[in-house]
From TrEMBL, chain A:
Xref: InterPro entries: DUF3325
Chain ranges passing through the membrane: 66-86, 92-109
Protein name as it appears in the record: DUF3325 domain-containing protein
Keywords (A to Z) from UniProt: Membrane, Transmembrane, Transmembrane helix
UniProtKB/TrEMBL annotation, chain B:
A Pfam family of this chain: PepSY_TM
UniProt keyword list: Membrane, Transmembrane, Transmembrane helix
Name of the protein in its database record: PepSY domain-containing protein
Bilayer-crossing regions: 12-36, 142-164, 198-219, 348-368, 389-411, 423-446, 458-477, 489-509
Domain of life: Bacteria
InterPro entries: PepSY-ass_TM
Length: 120, 533
């Protein structure tokens, strides 16, 4: 189960790497085009997820085996993502796009709340 | 050669790649299957029951058999049925033959009843695995050198490929479908880049594996030339020799169960929780009798763990947690290549990476012809010989090898059990199939009907793979449904994998059929004019 979670995290990490490249976000629409700051944040998020998945994999497998496992997982997830992105970009990135949408909504809400507070 | 560094590298990548691609593809296909060699072995011996005995029962059975048959042996080797590589108790010892000479014997034993297990003669997964570095039908030593040269070319291809592929990170996820040669290039790049660490590792460690074959002079400098010197070196390097000399004085050994128990307790105290799967007893029933225990491999860096005990008193004589120094570095590299330490999930990832290596080579081969097709079609003297030859070899190898693997499995079930040299005939079937596919590919390519060749061969391969589980169900009691009911997951996975392979081949065949309808009118006209005398 933990290895399945690891592969999912690797996939999400790769999705973030993909979303940090304007070459690919063009297929999704203008709203997903990353700013310089966003580009860096998404890349950092990708590395963070890969790091977390390495840590998670090392719990049942041990450090050395986990490293081998993660390299394999990156290969498998990367091919799935590339092929999926080619056939349907939004569906391939659905989990990450949802997270981005939700975080965007939260950010907008926060701004609104802050504005309301200031007015009152 | 072209002017400019990158152009030269591209030239080198293209030409060295295509020249060795067919054998490299063979090495990758058989090597990838080698990651499940033990599972293939188990499938190819359907007579063998699943082991249900405990370690203690297995040890008692081993002792009973060895006391009876191995009295004259210099050493006993016991491989317990606890690891994936040994599904049954395996014993090795020496026995006197009719002329009174000691000959080595290996027996698979039913761990519960101590009876010798009988199964059909088969090459199994081991033959497929060995073929990836020993090839077949040529002397082993020569094969090692061939494989070494091909592996060097592979390494060269990888390095030049990295230089040629300018935008590795920028185009990391790029794959454009239905774009002709660009799609093949994208596919080739995707398969290469995604599993680049695996490809570099597998190629480099493959060369390290035969260090002493490819660079024998270091060995010769200290141990001299000839087989005797080589044997001395390997005995010293791998510590194959017995830790003690036989005294010639008889003594009674402790029971194997007790020795195993003592070893397990000692190893646990040393922080090694792995179970012992291999036991070697040197000079059995002698005063100097010793037992050497080898725990299972838990990761790539702890190979060489060894506990030496006196088999008479049970005292620990020495303990080595793993190899040290250069030997450890080499062992880590070899373990990474073979993946023996890998659990099931990691093993599947190894298999997947190997499969991607096959696709990488295959897409490279197709890309070569794809890029030259228009020029070849427009050649006033007709298609050049080199183009036809390459395309014919490509078709016959890319599709022919998977088909040969399917036929190898089918031969295991269909060849008569009493057939002489049955295991050899399984392999002959493999190569005959490959040859047939090559000839078929060549013939249709010469008639400028390569699309037809691709389609027919993929369709045929699909049928062959789909037949494997069916024939298994008809000829044995361990068909897919029966295996599911018995929770025999090795058999279930094997059959399902074959079904999946069949469906993938069918999908490719359909894809080839649909793309052949979209051939450009100019090409179609050219093809038509070539076909009409």
């Amino acid at each position: 189960m933990i290895l399945l979670l690891t592969i999912t995290l690797v996939y999400l990490g790769l999705c973030l790497f993909l979303l940090s490249m304007p070459k690919y976000t063009r297929a999704l629409g203008r709203e997903y085009k990353p700013s310089n700051h966003g580009e860096r944040a998404r890349r950092a998020g990708g590395w963070l997820l890969l790091g977390v998945s390495l840590y998670l994999a090392s719990i049942p497998l041990g450090g050395v085996n986990a490293l081998v496992f993660i390299l394999g997982a990156v290969t498998a997830a990367g091919v799935c993502l590339s092929l999926g992105f080619q056939s349907n970009p939004k569906r391939a990135l659905l989990p990450v796009l949802l997270i981005i949408k939700i975080s965007m909504l939260i950010a907008v809400n926060r701004k609104l709340v802050l504005r309301c507070k200031k007015r009152s | 050669m072209k002017s400019g560094f990158r152009q030269s590298m591209a030239w080198l990548h293209t030409w060295t790649g295509i020249v060795v691609s067919w054998i490299l593809y063979f090495m990758f296909v058989t090597g990838t299957l080698g990651y499940f060699d033990s599972e293939i072995d188990a499938w190819m011996k359907p007579e063998l029951p699943r082991n249900t005995a405990t370690v203690q029962t297995a040890l008692r059975s081993a002792q009973q058999h060895l006391e009876h048959h191995g009295q004259d042996a210099k050493d006993w080797r016991i491989y317990l049925p606890i690891s994936r590589t040994e599904p049954h108790l395996l014993l090795g010892y020496q026995q006197k033959n009719a002329e009174g000479q000691l000959v080595r014997v290996r027996q698979q034993i039913d761990a519960a009843t101590a009876e010798v297990l009988q199964s059909r003669a088969t090459g199994g997964g081991q033959t497929l695995y060995r073929m990836h570095y020993r090839l077949h039908y040529i002397p082993t030593r020569l094969a090692y050198y061939f494989v070494g040269v091909f592996t060097l070319f592979m390494l060269l291809g990888l390095l030049t490929g990295i230089v040629v592929h300018k935008k590795i990170f920028k185009e990391f996820f790029t794959f454009r479908a239905n774009k002709g040669a660009s799609s093949w290039l994208d596919g080739h790049n995707l398969m290469s880049v995604m599993s680049l660490p695996f490809h570099l590792m597998i190629t480099y460690t493959g060369l390290v594996m035969f260090t002493f074959t490819y660079m024998p002079f270091v060995l010769n400098a200290s141990y001299g030339f000839g087989e005797e010197g080589k044997k001395q070196f390997f005995d010293a390097y791998y510590k194959n020799a017995a830790p003690t000399e036989a005294s010639g004085k008889p003594a009674t050994m402790l029971p194997l169960t007790q020795l195993y128990q003592n070893a397990s307790v000692y190893l646990e105290r040393q922080g090694n929780a792995q179970a012992n799967y291999a036991i070697r007893i040197y000079h059995p029933n002698d005063v100097n009798s010793v037992a050497v225990f080898s725990p299972e491999l838990s990761d790539a860096s702890n190979d060489g763990s060894k506990l030496v005990m006196s088999a008479i008193s049970g005292d620990v004589l020495s303990y080595q947690p793993h190899y040290s120094g250069v030997r450890r570095v080499q062992s880590v590299l070899l373990e990474l290549h073979e993946g023996i330490f890998a659990n099931l999930a990691t093993r599947w990832l190894y298999f997947l990476s190997g499969g991607m290596g096959c696709v990488m080579i295959a897409t490279g081969m197709v890309l070569w012809t794809k890029k030259r097709r228009t020029k070849a079609l427009n050649n006033p003297q007709g298609m050049p010989f080199s183009f036809k030859l390459t395309e014919g070899l490509n078709i016959g190898t890319i599709v022919g090898l998977p088909a040969a693997v399917a036929v190898y499995f089918l031969a295991n079930r269909l060849l008569p059990l009493g057939l002489e040299a049955r295991a050899q005939w399984e392999i002959h079937c493999f190569f005959i199939t490959w040859l047939m596919f090559l000839l078929h590919g060549m013939r249709l390519t010469w008639l400028s009907r390569s699309h037809k060749a691709w389609y027919q061969q993929w369709l045929c391969t699909s049928v062959l793979f789909l037949l494997v589980p069916m024939i298994n169900g008809i000829t044995t009691q361990r068909g897919l449904v029966a295996s599911m009911l018995n929770a025999d997951w090795v058999y279930v996975t094997f059959d399902i994998t074959n079904l999946a392979a069949g469906l993938v081949c069918l999908f490719i065949a359909q894809k080839v059929k649909s793309t052949s309808k979209q051939v450009l009118p100019v090409q179609r006209g050219k093809l038509h004019s070539e076909l009409t005398p």
